[in-house]
Amino acid sequence: MDEISWRAGDFDGDDIDKASRLRKLFLDETADSLRRSCEPEYYRWKLFDNPLRQGVFYLAYSDGKVVGMTTITPKRLCIGGKLIDGGEIGDTFTHPEWQRKGIFTTLVNLSREEAIKRRLDLIYGTPNDKSLPGYERKCDFAVIPAARVENLVYPLDPGQILETFFRFPLIPAVTGWVASAG
Description:
By secondary structure, the protein is an alpha+beta fold. It has helices spanning 13-24, 31-34, 40-48, 103-117, 132-137, 158-166, 170-181; strands at residues 5-8, 56-62, 65-79, 82-94, 122-125. 37% of the residues lie in helices and 24% in strands. Strand 3 and strand 4 (82-94) form a beta hairpin.
């Protein structure tokens, strides 16, 4: 087996580009897969230009190739009416050829340790069915049935959002014009 090295902290554009390419291996045509960008600019914005604080970004490498990644995006959370600094763990991907080698567990645990060092009050995730068992069994995360994670969206450009879902530029152009005329 090739040697694996772990890296976190400051990354250059090449590292972020490699992570973006790894993420793109997992895209499919479902709306859930398409709802978030996986472009390098997105990762720069949410992890390094985040107005709350810098995010956590861990990468696993083998021979200069990114074979695993995870992120924690800083977010202000409201828990019981109190605002706290937390983070959403996500973008946890392992290259298909490198799965079942402990990369997922190591990256999640390293990210959690870094979140503790940065004094985040809480980290949470919204894992899919494939990764949930790993979070529960190998990383000691617990599902809290009463917890409610809400995504609030206020579209500033309805045309661009519709183009993402319909993939036909004429429809968003017309509906965007109609929406902005109102």
